[in-house]
Amino acid sequence: MVSRSHKSLVFLSVFLAVWAWNVSAAVVKGETGVGELSPSQIEEQLQDCSLVQALNQHKVASSPATASWTSQVFAFLFPGSPAVNALLATLYISGPPNFLLALCPPNIDPSSLSVMVAFAVGGLLGDTLFHLLPEIFLGEDEHDKVKFVMVEPNKNLLLGVAIMLGFVTFVAMDKGLRIATGGEGGHDHSHSHSHEKIESTAKASGLEVKDSKDSLRARKSASGITPPLTPKPEAEKEISSSVKLAGYLNLIADFTHNITDGLAMSSSFYASPTIGATTTVAVFFHEIPHEVGDFALLIQSGFSKKQAMGAQFITALGALLGTCIGIAVQEYGGNSASAEVSGLGLFGTSLQWGDMLLPFTAGTFLYVGTVAVIPELLETGPDKAKELKSTLTQFAAMFAGAGIMLAISWS
């Protein structure tokens, strides 16, 4: 016969077993607050799993971290916090291209920049496809541990919406500029339409001078009287009002474009130091032909060299403004990688407002690297041999720019 003490022990054991089963079931069902954890907190707890720790050890053993020369250079150029690094990057992409304008002759032909523009296209598309888009959807790899990506309903859709918004924003800006200038072309690098219009205006003015001389000779021969000689000013190239308007509107578009460059700097550095550094390199490659092309347009619009340089410096302040806006959004809007952020974010996902900046800038990069620049590279002339040689050079420059971005990412 079972004693009373044994009955109590059996009852207590059954009670503890039932309680343990209920606790484990609650954990499985997420009733212990798992749904309230942020993705970064879940990632941190996953690292405590024995299987994950074994995978981390295998990853470190199979691919030990080595400091490449690019990482050393980036660490030297960007030694601070994400905000400080973003401001430094803005200084790097705005300062040297503007100082380079002092070395440019006022009569530079923007069409001569086609090889440099092709190189910039490769850099922008390489940064977007090799760095920004993988970072947006999958995050950045870490050399000392494995990472898991949780698939959330509608998260990827919102990221795609942000990319499309960035693309459409530049479509609207370019379209508005074309409407304002009467369809003379948007915000591009070659500005060939403006250049051709100035030349046609100059030819027209020269024709008028020639006609006036012919009529003068006719009157002289008819009357037999030689009119008094009056000093005639040298024929100057007239600049139409539409070309002048295009120059001023181009400054507005350039200022807006630089704001998006600043947003790219801030969002990329808050994503990761590597993404920030590679984005800085890509934007720097793009800014050189961009600034020189805009400088040439301003000269054609009637600006002096000093005035054109001053105007370009003012537009460069747009990058600083965009960087400050991006830093404010990241600091106060938060991002999903922040440990302080918990619970649901935008539209029931883990995304925060700060997470939307990087896909937005990726959309602007896609527009600049394709719609805004590729049509210039597609233009051809009647000389087939010359155009074939130019095309091969442009493709080589484009692959060189993309190859640099791939090499940085690979290392």
Automatic annotation (TrEMBL):
Organism: Amniculicola lignicola CBS 123094
Highest taxon above the source species: Eukaryota
Residues passing through the membrane, by range: 113-137, 157-173, 308-329, 356-378, 390-410
Molecular-function GO term, any one: zinc ion transmembrane transporter activity
Principal location listed in the UniProt entry: membrane
Keywords, alphabetical: Membrane, Signal, Transmembrane, Transmembrane helix
Protein localization: Membrane
Bias (Basic and acidic residues): 185-200, 208-217
Region (Disordered): 182-236
Biological process, per Gene Ontology: intracellular zinc ion homeostasis
Topological category with respect to the lipid bilayer: Multi-pass membrane protein
Signal peptide positions (record): 1-25
Alphabetical list of Pfam families matching this protein: Zip (PF02535)
Protein name (Swiss-Prot/TrEMBL): ZIP zinc transporter-like protein
Record-level GO cellular component terms: membrane
